[in-house]
Design goal:
Elements: E1 2-6, H1 22-36, E2 42-45, H2 55-65, E3 72-74, H3 82-88, E4 102-106, E5 109-113, H4 128-138, E6 144-148, H5 158-161, H6 168-175, E7 182-187, E8 194-198, E9 201-205, E10 212-213, E11 226-227, E12 233-239, E13 242-248
The structure holds fe (ii) ion (FE2).
């Protein structure tokens, strides 16, 4: 099974973000996915669909994302607005308390798409109602893969660590009894590609499409410094006993060379 991990598209209704055109970046990614990964089972967008959460930005996002030829699943990040999102995507799945959370069954396990949105904050939240939904999902047997916007841990960049998931210990307590069945944790938010393990759970994050966060390991914590490292999306190849995640520099214009 192939899954495309797309994240942090940061669309606006009109114009640019930090001098780049996020709609053009998304259009390029969509064209690349259709042309190179038309066999993907799912495309999952792990939040920050828009920069400012306005309906016009979701409408522009919808226009581009509708061109994908495979099933697409949308999640929310700190730059999103749940009400405006639902204006444009009224049939997007949600849980029984209205959070944008859903589960997708696949032959290689259940994909759990979590909603870590916290209104008015760039940090994330996973409150008791959402943890209760997750606990009920995990009560079902079988392997799972978890997708979320905010990482529940530090990654060593102070400005990002300041806006990670709150209530990380409570979140971990829900996962802990099921850890051996959690095959991978995918997240966005950090606008960087990185891989590792958290308390035994393998994870990866992917670059954003419009702008990236610099590798500023010594701070500052109160100012986020970005850059225009190339955009990318993730290509996850998942079999019964393996998860491999590739970063695809889809905008790289260099031609194939014979090695
Ligand atoms: Fe973002």
């Amino acid at each position: 099974m192939k899954i495309i991990h797309l994240t942090d598209t940061h669309l606006v209704g009109f114009g640019t973000v930090h001098g780049a055109d996020p709609a053009a970046r998304l259009a390029g990614a969509v064209a690349s996915i259709n042309a190179e990964h038309g066999d993907a089972a799912h495309v999952i967008v792990t939040g920050d669909l828009t920069e400012n959460g306005e309906a016009a930005a979701y409408a522009r996002f919808a226009e581009e994302i509708a061109k994908l030829t495979m099933p697409v699943h949308l999640m929310l990040g700190n730059h999103d607005n749940p009400d405006a999102f639902r204006q444009i995507f009224p049939t997007a799945p949600c849980d029984d308390t209205g959070f944008t959370q859903s589960a997708i069954d696949t032959p290689q396990g259940r994909l759990l798409l979590l909603d870590t949105h916290l209104p008015g904050s760039h940090a994330g939240r996973y409150c008791e109602a959402r943890r209760d939904w997750l606990a009920r999902q995990l009560a079902r047997p079988g392997p799972v893969m978890v997708f979320m916007h905010h990482p529940p841990f530090d990654i060593g960049i102070p400005s990002l660590d300041a806006i990670k998931l709150q209530e990380a210990e409570a979140f971990h307590a829900v996962l802990a009894p099921h850890k051996s069945r959690i095959r991978h944790l995918f997240f966005g938010h950090v606008h960087r590609a990185l891989w590792g393990t958290w308390r035994g759970i393998p994870y990866s994050a992917m670059r954003g499409l419009n702008h990236q966060v610099g590798l500023n390991l010594t701070g500052p914590a109160d100012r986020m410094l970005g850059n225009f490292e190339p955009p990318a999306y993730g290509v996850a190849l998942i079999t019964d006993d393996q998860v491999t995640v590739h970063l695809h520099d889809y905008a790289d214009p260099s031609p194939d060379i014979l090695l």
